[in-house]
């Protein structure tokens, strides 16, 4: 076992340009930020450039952009109803950002930005703050109806309201942890199984077994592509569901 | 994965809330104890809601697993 590996190493942040220091904390432009800018660039390319032609019979890129748009528009419409349309830009941006970052992370040697909890938590906070601020601005104190489930007998409300409050507070946590955990776990599993191939090959006669983890790695790669797209979709769906609360509190 | 995060998030939210309550009112262990228990209840409630066990359909998600 001369070779050793650290499956966590791929998630390390590498500063590209150091901008300065606040106290002892280094402020740097990391590869994570670079990937985020790249994702924004790709999204802009896909949506602005691809639809610039506005041809009636869309080309490849244009039809891809249109399909994605229609898909998210449908999801938002189903979750929030007709007046949820104003949140479509937010949900679409979040969906594309997460999707492109997830897919960028699947490129070998690339860095998966969404495997960092702080990034996903930041995105989840955007969603929850939008819900709270919009809900309070639109409905005022009536927004507190979110915490009162309908069709529950009066005495039970004493227990249900605190549960609903904690449930509401747990939303940004579950939203961010789900995305982060899926991506992190997937990348670590891929790395470990891929390393089994190498380990078996250097272990002499055991090398006969090496195609097994290789097949598993290939299967896992396919699964990870599924997870990458699915998690972006789940993030968008749940965002729309939470925004529905801001539009219609106390259903 | 979906259900477990839902449960864990409830407990974590309860824990954070309990810590804040203790910090504000100096009621050292009690806020944490009560809030984490409430967090457990919330976690179970979240899981029931997401898995469609309870009657409420607000957070029905087309995808349940993974």
From TrEMBL, chain A:
Single Gene Ontology MF annotation: proton-transporting ATP synthase activity, rotational mechanism
Pfam families xrefs: ATP-synt_A
The UniProt record lists the keyword Transmembrane: yes
Q: Which GO terms describe its cellular component?
A: plasma membrane; proton-transporting ATP synthase complex
Which InterPro entries is this protein grouped with?
ATP_synth_F0_asu (IPR000568), ATP_synth_F0_asu_AS (IPR023011), ATP_synth_F0_asu_bact/mt (IPR045083), F0_ATP_A_sf (IPR035908)
Q: Which residues cross the membrane?
A: 33-53, 87-105, 117-137, 188-209, 215-244
- Gene3D superfamilies assigned: ATP synthase, F0 complex, subunit A
In what way does this protein cross or attach to the membrane? Multi-pass membrane protein
The answer to whether the entry has keyword Ligase is no
Question: What compartments host this protein?
Answer: Cell membrane; Membrane
Q: Which UniProt keywords apply?
A: ATP synthesis, Cell membrane, CF(0), Hydrogen ion transport, Ion transport, Membrane, Transmembrane, Transmembrane helix, Transport
Where does this chain mainly localize?
A: membrane
Highest taxon of source = Bacteria
Function, please? Key component of the proton channel; it plays a direct role in the translocation of protons across the membrane.
The UniProt family comment states: Belongs to the ATPase A chain family.
* Name of the protein in its database record: ATP synthase subunit a
Q: Which organism is it from?
A: Methylorubrum populi
Gene symbol of the encoding locus: atpB
């Amino acid at each position: 076992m001369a070779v050793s590996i650290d499956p966590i190493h791929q998630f390390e942040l590498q500063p590209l340009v150091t901008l300065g220091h606040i106290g002892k904390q280094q402020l740097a432009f990391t590869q994570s930020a670079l990937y985020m800018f790249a994702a924004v660039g790709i999204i802009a390319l896909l949506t602005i450039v691809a639809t610039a032609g506005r041809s009636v019979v869309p080309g490849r890129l244009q039809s891809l952009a249109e399909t994605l748009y229609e898909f998210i528009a449908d999801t938002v419409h189903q979750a929030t109803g007709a007046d949820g349309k104003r949140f479509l830009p937010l949900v679409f941006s979040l969906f594309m950002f997460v999707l492109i970052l997830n897919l960028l992370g699947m490129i070998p040697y690339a860095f998966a930005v969404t495997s960092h909890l702080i990034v996903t938590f930041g995105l989840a906070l955007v969603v929850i703050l939008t819900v709270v601020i919009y809900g309070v601005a639109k409905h005022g104190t009536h927004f507190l109806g979110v915490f009162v489930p309908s069709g529950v007998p009066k005495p039970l409300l004493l227990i249900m309201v605190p549960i609903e409050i904690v449930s509401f507070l747990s939303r940004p946590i579950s939203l961010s942890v789900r995305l982060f955990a899926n991506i992190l776990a997937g990348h670590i599993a891929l790395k470990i199984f891929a390393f089994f191939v190498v380990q078996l090959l250097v272990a002499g006669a055991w090398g006969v077994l090496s195609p097994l983890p290789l097949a598993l790695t290939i299967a896992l790669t396919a699964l990870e592509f599924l997870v990458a797209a699915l998690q972006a979709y789940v993030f968008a769906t749940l965002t729309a569901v939470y925004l529905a609360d801001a539009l219609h509190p106390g259903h | 994965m979906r259900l477990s995060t839902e449960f864990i998030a409830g407990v974590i939210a309860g824990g954070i809330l309990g810590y804040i309550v203790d910090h504000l009112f100096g009621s050292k262990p009690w806020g944490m104890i009560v809030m984490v228990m409430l967090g457990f209840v919330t976690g179970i409630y979240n899981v029931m809601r997401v898995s469609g066990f309870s009657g409420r359909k607000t957070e029905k998600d087309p995808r349940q697993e993974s």
